[in-house]
Structures are given as C-alpha cells and as structure tokens.
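cache lookup: miss for this entity combination. No prior model stored, computing from scratch. Input as submitted by user K.M.:
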Amino acid sequence: NAGVTQTPKFRILKIGQSMTLQCTQDMNHNYMYWYRQDPGMGLKLIYYSVGAGITDKGEVPNGYNVSRSTTEDFPLRLELAAPSQTSVYFCATGGRQPQHFGDGTRLSIL
Amino acid sequence: GESVGLHLPTLSVQEGDNSIINCAYSNSASDYFIWYKQESGKGPQFIIDIRSNMDKRQGQRVTVLLNKTVKHLSLQIAATQPGDSAVYFCAETLISGNTPLVFGKGTRLSVIA
C-alpha cells in the first residue's frame, strides 16, 4: 500500500513549457487535492476532486488544469509555465479534508 | 481576507519537555480544525483534528485545545522527542460544504537533545 505517489520528484522547466505532474493513490478515496507550497508558507489549494469525472477550483487555480478520469489518478497540468509557478506541489487524498499527502514535486521555472 | 496565523514562527524545546504550538484563526465561522506535521522533504502528515463543539481532544502524546472565545488553537506535545522536530501547521475550515482548508504559515519545532 503506497498511499499517494507523486512523479516526478524534481523538475526544472523553461518559461512557456508545459508539463503534467502525476498523482496516484491506492487508498480508494473519492476526494483528491492539489496544493502548492511556497517557501515559508502554508499550503494553498489549486484544484480538488470529489470523485471521478468531477473537479473544482480551489484558491489558486489560474495557470493550471486537472482531470479525474479514474478514482486513482489526478494529474495536474501546467500549460504555459511561468516563474510564479515555481513551488512545491503536493497531491493529497482523504475524506472531505486531506489526510494523506504525497512527498511532493519540486518545480522550478527558469 | 480571513486567514489563519501563528504566534511563534520557531520554537526550540529541550528533549523530554512539553511543547506548545499556538495558532490564531480569524474566521469566527470556522468549525473544524486540523493540525499537520511536515518533516523536511516530506508532505504534511495529519496529526489530530477537532470540531468546534469540543474544546479539547487528546491523541497519542498530543492534545489540541480550542478556545472559540478568543479564536485560538494550540497543539501540545508531551515529552517532546527528536522525531517531533518538524514544521507544524494548523488549518481551519467549515465542516459542511466544500470549503477549502485554510492553512497557517507554520511553526518550526526544534528539539534539543
């Protein structure tokens, strides 16, 4: 039982490039979340999903997209990377609030 | 806007002593609170939660206290151990609906052996 798995762990992107951050959970939870954490700050919610086929915006959704085709997977897409998106990204799952987090993807936009 | 904050950004505690980490919240409507622990290079880990109809809840070596009158939350760790060294976040929300959690900025706890 791996819990929440995020890939990649690290990535450097150039401005304007696109990429997908992967998140998979094997805990069979309906709820999944994407957060970003800037240095010295708490987490801010980007998008969340209450089940397959359903996604909703969080506090800071601009510049991101998500999809939820299965219960297990919740990928986060950056279409046009900007320096402001340099951050650590955490995927989480749980009930109506996140309880289990992945170890994060450290993303730098240069 | 409404936000969750912390009184102390850093806290150093001698091993074996008790630790108290404080959190002030400003949304008087919040009725559900969670404490998370985040070790270096890891994702946050759920520690304990409390609903607003309680003023105290205990777990294993941890106790959360809620004072709704002054909108204050605290996490007490008994007999602090080196493994407790981490950043601790409080978070608040409304338990009904899909209101996102609002996280505080975190307090770094350093345990001195």
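stored under new cache key. Chain A touches chain B at residues 4, 40-45, 48, 50, 56, 58-59, 90, 92, 94, 96-104 (CB under 8 Å).
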